[in-house]
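Hi all, posting the design record for the shared folder.

TITLE: backbone redesign
STEP: 1 of 1
STRUCTURE INPUT:
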């Protein structure tokens, strides 16, 4: 008997995935339009998700992801021992730079942040694990998207590259060239393209010839000097080398799960 998608289940998942990528949340009408389902069909689904606290309704009639979704998602990360390898190197990077370090993977056209080590500085980047951002506007995203062809990027973003800040690159050709330049340099940059006043530097992490994740360091513009830039890039490259060597040396099986669970295949 041929397999067919269970439509009611698919609608629940469509709603959760939509809300996970919406910073301000979505109204009932916006949800129905986005997943192409009548409002009357999704009303009972929305009510059940609210009752079980997988989504939350705010005063503006917008729905956002709820605490139960966070609890379920966190259970997955708790079993990923491989994250401890990343975190050890991220702590080393923070000690070397005094700036925040983040780990992210590519999910569709977004970067999903899996881990973060805070900066000891009083003024620092405000972000959190589980956040998703448009990959083309982040240093981590550029590192992971550098495996894509120009046509592949255009296919991944059929609506174009919408600006997040006034410095976000919105031209496919320019963005592709920037990614290729990053591959040549060995690191990627975000110059206030996702958050005003914040600059990021990133390196991708490869396993079996494919980028599975990337690490970045975020530095406020007023603390960014040429010396700090060089120190940051050196720390990132050193940790990249150590992690990739560890993956190969230990032949870690868990990383296959890590890669297949999140990473989109380049096109």
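Okay, here is what came back for every position:
SEQUENCE:
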């Amino acid at each position: 008997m041929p397999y067919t998608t269970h439509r009611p289940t698919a609608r629940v998942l469509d709603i959760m995935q939509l809300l996970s990528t919406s910073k301000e949340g979505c109204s009932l009408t916006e949800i129905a339009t986005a997943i192409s389902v009548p409002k009357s069909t999704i009303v009972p689904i929305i009510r059940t998700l609210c009752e079980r606290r997988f989504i939350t309704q705010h005063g503006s009639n917008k729905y956002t992801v709820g605490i139960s979704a966070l609890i379920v998602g966190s259970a997955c990360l708790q079993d990923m021992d491989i994250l401890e390898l990343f975190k050890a190197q991220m702590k080393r990077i923070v000690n070397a730079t005094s700036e925040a370090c983040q780990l992210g993977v590519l999910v569709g056209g977004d970067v999903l942040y899996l881990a973060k080590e805070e900066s000891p500085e009083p003024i620092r980047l405000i972000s959190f694990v589980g956040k998703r951002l448009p990959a083309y506007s982040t240093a981590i995203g550029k590192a992971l998207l550098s495996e894509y062809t120009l046509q592949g990027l255009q296919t991944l973003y059929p609506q174009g590259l919408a600006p997040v800040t006034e410095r976000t690159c919105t031209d496919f050709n320019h963005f592709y060239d920037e990614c290729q330049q990053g591959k040549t340099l060995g690191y990627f940059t975000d110059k206030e393209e996702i958050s005003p006043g914040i600059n990021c530097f990133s390196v991708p992490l490869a396993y079996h010839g494919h980028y599975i994740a990337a690490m970045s360091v975020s530095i406020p513009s007023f603390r960014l000097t040429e010396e700090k830039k060089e120190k940051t890039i050196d720390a990132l490259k050193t940790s990249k080398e150590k992690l990739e060597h560890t993956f190969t040396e230990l032949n870690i099986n868990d990383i296959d799960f890590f890669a297949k669970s999140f990473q989109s295949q380049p096109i």
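COMMENT: The domain at 80-262 is CATH 3.30.450.40 (Beta-Lactamase).
Let me know if anyone wants the other runs.
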